[in-house]
Amino acid sequence: MDPSEPVLLALDAQHADLARLLEPLDDAAWRAPTPCPGWDVADVVAHLAQTDEAAVASAEGRLGTLANGTLIDDSVADVDELAERMVADTRSMSPAEVFARWSEATTALRTALRTVPPEARCQWVVGTFTARTLATTRLAETWIHTSDVAAALGVEPEVDDRIAHIARLAWRTVPYAFSRAGLGPPGPVAFDLVLPSGARLALGVDSARTTVRGSALDLCRVAGQRADAADTALTAEGPDAVAVLRLVRTFA
Q1: What is d(CA 149, CA 147) in angstroms, rounded to the nearest whole number?
Q2: Which of 160, 119, 145, 225 is nearest to 13 (CA)?
Q3: Nearest C-alpha neighbor of 141 from the set 47, 38, 235
Q4: Which CATH number fits domain 163-247: 3.90.1570, 3.30.1050, 1.20.1050, 3.40.1710?
Q5: According to the model, what pLDDT value does residue 127 have?
Q6: Global pTM?
Q7: Which parts of the chain sit beneath pLDDT 50?
């Protein structure tokens, strides 16, 4: 992808935001609990390093697959259990080692993404998608975990219009969210959102039967499982309104 690709610029900025939070931390701060149950700051950053490393392998065609086109085998129940096992393997590392591993992984990821066409197909945890979508999923995960680290430190994370990429990912993957819940595909769904700058983000509004309206920040937090839609100002109307707000997601 061209280095000026908007999602790559957004990913660069998100990595920089998280680095600024992490660089001044002492060992005690690295052990602060985060909103991720059972994980401290070091665990969250180790997880990001591991998943960025996997994304590098994906972009380079090295990720590989197991049965049924998925990286989840019979030894783990789901993606969450796999992540927990992988993070547990890093708990003997010092905070400095975790930070160095994450920094190296982010640099390798940005380099790898710049070497593949945006529409190239990349293997991920379940199935394949384009390199541009792979970059967007890494942005989404880094963004939500940056907010986790910020919460652990008692600071407000920076928020800007780069979350438009995350909101678009959530909108495009609504059918996937329904399939993960064992449901048939929904009818046409629109997101009519307001970005942090006040700009409008209208996705699919010309043909939808179900429309979600409100703050893009709220939508991204709900899709990242950091807020319940009922606790936000999001509204939805249409035949799939309740299900969309319950199931929307930006993760595998």
Answers
A1: 5
A2: 160
A3: 47
A4: 3.30.1050
A5: 83
A6: 0.93
A7: 65-70, 72
